[in-house]
Amino acid sequence: MRTAGRLVLALSALRGVYADAAWQVYYPKDSNVIAATLPTTTVTTTASAASATQTVAAYNMTELVAPSLPSPMPSLAFGVQLYSGGMENLSIQQNGAFMGFSIEMSVSVQVCASAIHPTFLNLMANLAQRAGWVRVRVGGNSQETAELKTTLAGYSEGTILAKDTGNTTNPTNTPPIEYTSDLFTMMGKITDFTNIRWYLGVPFYTIDPVNMDIVVVGESVLGDRVLAYQVANEPDYYGYNGRNHRDSTYSPANFTTEFGEFITQVNANSSITRRSDTWMVPSISATNWNIDDFITTGLISTYKDQLYAMTVERYPNDNCGAIYGYTTVTDPQDVIASYVNHDQVTSILQYYQVSSAYAVSLDVPYIMFETNTASCSGFPGVSDAFAAALWGIDWSMTLAYYNFSAALYHIGGQAAYYNAFTPPPTAQSAYYGWTVGPIYYSALVLAETMGSSNTSQVVELFQNSNSPYTPGWAVYENGIPKKVLMINYMTDSTGSSDYTASVAIGGGTTGQTAATPSSVKVKILRAASVASKTNMTWAGQTLGDHFTSDGRLTGDLSVQTIQCDTTNNVCKVVVPAPGAALIFLDDDSYTAVTPTTTETFPTTFYTATVNTAKIDPSALAHSNGHGNMSGILDATSQNSRSSAWSWRVDIVRLITTCSVFIGAFVVWM
Ligand SMILES: *[C@@H]1O[C@H](CO)[C@@H](O)[C@H](O)[C@H]1NC(C)=O
Ligand SMILES: *[C@@H]1O[C@H](CO)[C@@H](O)[C@H](O)[C@H]1NC(C)=O
Ligand SMILES: *[C@@H]1O[C@H](CO)[C@@H](O)[C@H](O)[C@H]1NC(C)=O
Ligand SMILES: *[C@@H]1O[C@H](CO)[C@@H](O)[C@H](O)[C@H]1NC(C)=O
Ligand SMILES: *[C@@H]1O[C@H](CO)[C@@H](O)[C@H](O)[C@H]1NC(C)=O
Ligand SMILES: *[C@@H]1O[C@H](CO)[C@@H](O)[C@H](O)[C@H]1NC(C)=O
Ligand SMILES: *[C@@H]1O[C@H](CO)[C@@H](O)[C@H](O)[C@H]1NC(C)=O
Ligand SMILES: *[C@@H]1O[C@H](CO)[C@@H](O)[C@H](O)[C@H]1NC(C)=O
Ligand SMILES: *[C@@H]1O[C@H](CO)[C@@H](O)[C@H](O)[C@H]1NC(C)=O
């Protein structure tokens, strides 16, 4: 148990280092009654604060109309036959941390400042307990002009990240970012709490020489907590539009040549000791260049020993019309149906099959480095609704089946709809909890589906005559079927569109060592409608609705145990409309991903009490992942930016805040 005495002890040791730091410790509070613990001295009324936040994208409560039932309806009862020893097209072995997160560098301090928040640590711990660890990328377009400074002149002492808004010479009109090594110190502290491993990005706008400060500092401060470095973000845009970092002849062959020059520079630089399994290229987005062209340029085959992974970025759609005020604006109601249909997922991702087979043949991992429901902030009513939770499962499982090794889901600020999680606006963080989005539920399901064994292999079942409304996958470990994951994309509150899958193993075929078990356990991901923005549950537990989460699952765990029909050798599982079901075919696979005790970080800290950070949320609409990544619109081109903004954080307070949590964590243990 925690004791105040020990907590203070841990803190006072650190106070010696940061003598001037201001900090304040609160004790954990009931996560379900955040509104009830409002500090009345600083808040006038809850209602006014709530209505103020209604204007912020991440908290839009308006729901769309769920798509009507398909006509004709798919069959609502069908069989699924699994075989021991494996099945055709079983994927490569997958990691529990398949689903990770991508955070734009320019907002990283907001996220990191928030990240130090125990809510963030709880959210990460939930995943790490199931999957072993979590991967997070800090980078994006803003990494391309990032500059390491010893101190940030003109800002208050301790500022660790700033945008040089006075500088208008940059051709994109994107203010360059300046940061100090304290950014990495902070990330290192986060890893000390939960098993997060990082990806960083090397700027590539200038190649003679490439500025490798981030590698030098990353290595010295974070060491192997940085898994790998992305070299260039979306180089397919470099010669394009307002960016003008190369001329319009810039091609995959040019990029390959330049990467060779980069490797030469790395090899000549004695400050950089990492040589192999370190770099990620080419991180192109969608359709501007063809990823298959890199097969002929030899980018991957020539440098495969130096590469950690081959990377691409892709969003299936964009909401740029609404964000940039174009005459053509996509109505979210018109696209929600495309997010609850497996054919839509397959039609986009099959583009990557050739490059994926190529990566597998070279034994180079293939990573979807930045993705989400739609670029330009996502669609209101889709990206923040239950449809996105089911879509995130489908998109991730299809990528896994196509032999990708990971998918990183982008997180913007309060202006984005697709966030897996969003801290409350800083000014209100004293009395509101976080908002956990549907993509976080997908990540929970994926973490349990893959587990921490590193031996899970995924195969798509093409079940129910390959109906796009009822996709499913089996997960094998060492030739034995362990789990089955199924989605029901239909919305029908009457229950008459729930479907029943009859799962059988072995089927009496010769050589089948595994057989249909006598019972299976089933966890259900559920909400009333694919349009629902509230009341999402995973195995009966929830992270709460808007503003209510402290990152812990609440409610009683509810797991079905289904007795199988041992005469006919089938296990009948009902998948609700809408919902997803994870079927555990044996107890070991269930217990391995079902924590009996939950590692938690007490909610002891409110950002408002130390006033760590300020940001203009509208600026985030223009960060990476907000561009038209389904096409070629340039998100950071001239005149597309909102008014200048800057970002200040008092590192002394932040580090101390960190230390508060380290102290709290140590004591909790
Ligand atoms: C909230 O979502 C609705 C429905 O999509 C939309 O009409 C409205 O403009 C959104 N409001 C804000 C502030 O984003
Ligand atoms: C396996 O993958 C190949 C190549 O994509 C495909 O042609 C074949 O139909 C797949 N087999 C099964 C059983 O899905
Ligand atoms: C994924 O890689 C495995 C192993 O090489 C291969 O058998 C399988 O067919 C690949 N999957 C697809 C969908 O191509
Ligand atoms: C402005 O930014 C550009 C691009 O990052 C840089 O080359 C230039 O030196 C900066 N100018 C000033 C005055 O800082
Ligand atoms: C190594 O890279 C760093 C960062 O770009 C640079 O400052 C340094 O001069 C380089 N050292 C050598 C020997 O090239
Ligand atoms: C790309 O390569 C071609 C052929 O070597 C060259 O003519 C062209 O100038 C290069 N473009 C850039 C932007 O480097
Ligand atoms: C799984 O892979 C991760 C990342 O490579 C590693 O840290 C972990 O130890 C592995 N787990 C097992 C059980 O091998
Ligand atoms: C969410 O669930 C609670 C408890 O079951 C119920 O009272 C509430 O009406 C539900 N809200 C919505 C929007 O369905
Ligand atoms: C995004 O790009 C795609 C492909 O070029 C294009 O079809 C679409 O109209 C673009 N969307 C917007 C809003 O510009």
List the helices and strands and how they pair.
Blueprint: H1 4-15, H2 46-53, E1 77-82, E2 99-104, H3 108-115, H4 118-131, E3 134-139, E4 147-148, E5 161-163, E6 177-179, H5 182-193, E7 196-202, H6 213-222, E8 226-231, H7 252-268, E9 279-285, H8 293-297, H9 299-302, E10 307-314, H10 320-324, H11 332-335, H12 342-349, H13 353-362, E11 366-371, H14 386-401, E12 406-411, E13 421-422, E14 435-436, H15 438-450, E15 456-460, H16 463-466, E16 472-477, E17 480-488, E18 499-505, E19 519-526, E20 537-538, E21 560-563, E22 571-575, E23 579-584, H17 587-592, H18 607-610, H19 617-620, H20 651-668
Parallel strand pairs: 1-18, 2-3, 2-12, 3-7, 4-6, 7-8, 8-9, 9-10, 10-11, 11-12
Antiparallel strand pairs: 5-6, 13-14, 15-16, 16-17, 17-23, 18-22, 19-20, 19-21, 19-23
